[in-house]
Amino acid sequence: MGAYNRAMSRGRSEAAGREPVGRVFQRVLGDGLPVAARAEGSTIWDAEGRAYLDAAGGAIVVNVGHGRQSVVEAMKRQARAFTYVHGTIFTSEALEAYARAVGPRLPLDEPAIYPVSGGSEAIESCLKMVRAYHLARREPDRTVVIARWGSYHGNSLGALDLSGREFLRRPYEPWLGRFRHISAAYPYRAGEAAARALGDAEALAAELESAIAEAGQGRVAAFVAEPIVGAALGAVAPPDGYWPAVAEICRRHGALLVADEVMTGFGRTGRWFGLDHWGVRADVAACAKGVTGGYFPFGLAVASGAVYDTIVEGGSFVHGFTYSHSPVGAAAAAEVLRILESERLVEASAARGERLRALVEDRLGGHPNVGQIRGRGLLVGVELVADRTTRAPFPRSARLVEKVQARARERGLLIYYGTGNADGTNGETVLLGPPFVVTDEELTAIADQLAAAIGEAVTEIA
Ligand code: PLP
């Protein structure tokens, strides 16, 4: 019996009570998962020795690649000294050194980092920073937070409420509704007139300005968005004038600009941060994923110097997590940062990203069910459509993208995907985001295998 089947049958017999009970509540219900055994570079091997090309770095996480022993050693060194001290009692040299090293890279002026355990916690912490800032400025009525449809900021309830992914929100709708949402900068799926508006930076900025006016003078606390939308839309960058216009509007109205760089940060889009494509600075930012590249659950809520100083002057930041400010996480992050810099991996993400896009364009650019291939750096989205002319999506009930994922996996290729981008339910995109160390040969294999998997999946549902 293979490792895959053993895991399945163990789950079943334990469920039936024949063995001592104790099992994993998996991310995928009712599905057997292969057992991961080892990983190196862009490859993961399962317990049966099968190799998988990790074309999505898990969930667009493993920026520096798998199997980096120097990151493991850095964590070991810190863990040998001490693994945990409470963040209200001690700081650590690991944390302080990391803050000094990462500061100049972050897309905020004079940044102060608040380390947490991941992206959702980072977003929640950013929201609390926003609140603390306005309270410190004696503007308690600035409570309105504006986000966008077609966005993802996490699955904890505050972050989910901020997110504009309807199918994720739906089961929890009775607990949501605190935040406002405006349009995503996503012209591809709108009708012709709307497409012009949604692809036009001025029109999009005007929508933000109207939302601020509608909320009322002095009521808006922050605008939160991903610089380039990740899984929610599939690597969608806004038109060029968008971010500078949005930043200007926020400043003019006293609202903080919060950048969700959880997926786009640390080189993923070919620049250090998504906002760097437009030279825009945030007031507050969330980072995770690439911060440690998957070596430790670690994220950052970051405040600009001005926001941090105001909060400090206000004298209070009512917040905190048991596992925030981890010295082991900081040690991992510092080594990941050193690797990104010394191996020039951000530049590699830009160059290899272009190559990947060209390859995917070559293999799939003319495919009748591929509507658009897009992205920046090593974040590449492939929009699947039933009809290229009308851009109509396949009905979600056909579960095309899951079939693409399954066929790809059979071929030893791991991809990431998003759904609901067309209307909240329908619409499917494949998302590619391999480690920055991906080789030319692997890039070719990604494009070839993805094209074959899409072909097979479309045939299957035809
Ligand atoms: N923000 C963005 C843009 C993300 O892509 C994600 C995760 O995919 C999150 C926030 C939430 O991060 P986490 O899953 O680490 O909580």
Could you walk me through the main structural features you see in this protein, from its secondary elements to its overall organization?
The chain has helices spanning 3-15, 57-60, 69-81, 93-102, 119-136, 157-162, 166-169, 192-198, 201-215, 242-253, 305-314, 327-342, 345-364, 400-410, 440-461; strands at 36-40, 43-46, 51-54, 112-116, 144-148, 180-182, 220-225, 256-260, 284-287, 299-303, 370-376, 379-384, 413-414, 416-419, 428-432. It is of the alpha/beta class and 462 residues long. The chain has 2 domains: 36-66 and 345-461, Aspartate Aminotransferase, domain 1 (Alpha-Beta Complex); 69-342, 3-Layer(aba) Sandwich (Aspartate Aminotransferase, domain 2). The chain has a 7-stranded mixed beta sheet, sandwiched between helices. A hairpin with a 4-residue loop joins strand 2 and strand 3. The two termini are 34 Å apart. The model is unreliable at 1-9 (pLDDT under 50).
